[in-house]
Amino acid sequence: MTEGRIVKALAGFYYVMDQDQIFQCRGRGNFRKRKVNPLVGDWVEYESSNKTDGYIMDVKERKNELVRPPIANVDQAILVFSAVQPDFSPLLLDRFLVHIEANDILPVICVSKMDLVEETSEYEKIQMYIEKYRDLGYEVIPTSTKTDDSLEMFYPLFKDKLTVFAGQSGVGKSSLLNAINPELMLETNEISSHLGRGKHTTRHVELILFGNGLVADTPGFSSLDFLNIEAEDLSKFFPEMNERRGDCKFRGCSHTSEPKCAIRAGVESGEIPDFRYEHYVSFLQEIKDQKRRY
Length: 294
Ligand code: GDP
Ligand code: ZN
Prior knowledge:
The N and C termini lie far apart (46 Å). The chain is globular and about 65 Å long. α1 (90-102) packs across α6. β9 (106-112), α2 and β10 (139-142) form a beta-alpha-beta unit. It folds into 3 domains: 2-61, CATH 2.40.50.140; 71-216, P-loop containing nucleotide triphosphate hydrolases (Rossmann fold, 3-Layer(aba) Sandwich), CATH 3.40.50.300; 231-293, Probable gtpase engc, domain 3 (Ribonucleotide Reductase Protein R1, domain 1, Orthogonal Bundle), CATH 1.10.40.50. By secondary structure, it is α/β, with parallel strands linked by helices. The longest helix has 23 residues, at 173-195. The strands form 3 sheets. The protein has a 6-stranded mixed beta sheet. 35% of the residues are buried. Helix content is 28%, strand content 23%. Bound molecules: guanosine-5'-diphosphate (GDP) and zinc ion. Zinc ion is lined by residues 248, 253, 255, 258, 261-263.
């Protein structure tokens, strides 16, 4: 039995990539009794007696699973946030970051539409946020699909990872995906011609090869409510808080009113940005309100 990865699922078939070959497979075997529904991104064991088709015999355990788009084993999310139109929202960005960290996904922040702020009063504010997120350890990539004719800076990021693009509607996700496509066709002629892109004609997600990695052709991210996050875990998903939370005097410190709180000390010393702490407090409140309602 051989191992491969599902890169496309359509009409009862799973397209399993193994090295640079694609096998059109149907499901068979024990995973169906376990009620496992194979997803794009799944590592699978498959059987094939020829070079074109076969059967999926088993689905490996997943490290994570997105509902929208339905993808398993996502390694990285490129969070696209426009500088303007819509306005840059650190509150929404932090909400995305919490979910991404909670799903064990590596975040990359892409600030799009930089061409629209270059000569405006917004520029400094955006630049300030870019610096702050970089100081927190995040990779931040400013982009413009209008002025950058190549988006080469993305290229090395994709290597050996499964990447999804996420962000609000209108921020430029599709434009970015389209801007990186031409290269992709050159690189992957064999696989992409076999699969056929059929983009936007059908509502299915497909993984495309780019920069020696896989990129989901459909942007998105599962819901951003906090239903799956416990109040006491929230600070784990703010890296600058996570590294301090062990130093609070009280176990189970909520970092809001307890004495000798290492996180509030970090806010006072300026090591934790005020806006990040404010977002933490507002998410915490949201989690508590949710718990009360359910
Ligand atoms: P999506 O909803 O996130 O996929 O956003 P789209 O890619 O559809 O882009 C929304 C609008 O923003 C379109 O009118 C794009 O032409 C425009 N847009 C996208 N990227 C840029 C950019 O870098 N600069 C400028 N000026 N406009 C952009
Ligand atoms: Zn604390």
